Amino acid sequence: MSRRAGVVIAGGGVAGISAAIAAARGGADVVLLEREYCLGGMATLGLITIYLPLDDGMGNQVTFGISEELLRLSIEHGAEANYPKAWLEGGTLEERKKSRFIAQFNPHLFALRVEKLLLELGVKILYGTLGAAVIKDGPRISGIVIENKSGRSVITCDSVVDCTGDADIAHLAGAPTALNKRGNGLAGWYYYYTGGNVKLKMFGLADIPARGNDSGEKAQGSRFDNAKVASLASTRFSGVDGEELSEAVIEVHGKMYEDILKFKSEQPDYVPVTMSAIPLVRMSRRIVGAYTQDKTEKGAFIPDSIGVAAEWTASGCCHEISFRTLYSHEVPNLIAAGRNISVTDPMWEVTRTIPACALTGEAAGTAASMTNDFPALRTDELQLRLTSNNVRLHI
């Protein structure tokens, strides 16, 4: 059986959701592939339910468009913590300076709500489906070989958006890719119930520690119960090896079980409610695009910017993201979004966050609704489309 789509989006995390929204709103016929049976990726299945800031830490919002739309949607039925009152209810500049535009959301409500939105936009969602191989016509991708319960089949397409988080489609297509040098720390977040409340346990570092300090880290301006997140082990893993991923998950499951039993011995009603259903991989494989952006470019004017992303660990640090980080010349109808765009290892810490994934997803999906030759797309036309959708391009 074969299927036809204008745009195939591989990966239903925040980047894929944003790309699908933008492409569908741009008039494209969109098929979204998701290997699990729930949208949201790390944000929902991984229980990384912290919508990191849309502001610069100095009281000014810098990230808009679908990034803001999804934050508001994630807490449509109430925030679990850190409701950004100053930002959503007309707070003063001084009030906004005291608390960043950040929120903690319920993963289940968020996943169900974004699924409803995508279906309303006419996006075809294929759950339990993996992009297993690509078919190429010269340098271009002409089809994606998918694998699910029905077996293997092909979706022919005009363009592909790689939102896999690991540049899986780019790798399969022979586009240049690179691995993060340091890898990923061991983590497995979970929700638990005790004393009449359900709370999020940030169990283990899911991020590279700030300033090389492995004792823990804290999001500036946040008010989480688990303000300090300890490292579980010195082990780090790449995120692109099947056996290694299984070993990492098994190790964190064992440590999580010990952690639960420890607290349960002290509080008999302490029980786990849900745990991360996917490995907490944050930085693994990325594309090597037409341009590789570095963190030292913070505050710089980027002529082909597709939006502004803020650093969550520091105030006053913002980055305009270059459109050239989303594509390579080797496969002209393939574009990337999310944590696998073309950036250096230090810059990866910025672009892997939820707001930045939504920002690059919106740009990639918008571009895919306009062309199937991304290196040839006129940036000014893309920027005009983005600004008409309330994206702020420059700091």
Short descriptors:
single chain, 395 residues, alpha/beta, FAD/NAD(P)-binding domain, 7-stranded mixed β-sheet, 3-stranded antiparallel β-sheet, 10 helices, 18 strands, 23% strand, globular
Note the gap between the termini: 48 Å
Q: Overall 3D geometry?
A: globular
Total beta-strand segments: 18
The unreliable regions are 208-227
Level-2 CATH architecture of the largest domain:
3-Layer(bba) Sandwich
Helical run tally: 10
What's the main sheet like? Answer: 7 strands, mixed
**Roughly what percent helix?**
25-40%
Rg is: 20 Å
Instruction: Please report which band the strand proportion falls in: under 5%, 5-15%, 15-25%, 25-35%, 35-45% or over 45%.
Output: 15-25%
State the CATH superfamily name of the largest domain: FAD/NAD(P)-binding domain
Number of domains: 2
Instruction: Quickly give the structural class.
Output: alpha/beta
User: Mean pLDDT across all residues, rounded?
Assistant: 93
**Pattern of helices and strands:** EHEEHHHEHEEEEHEEEEEHEEEEEHHH
Query: Class of the largest domain, according to the CATH hierarchy?
Result: Alpha Beta
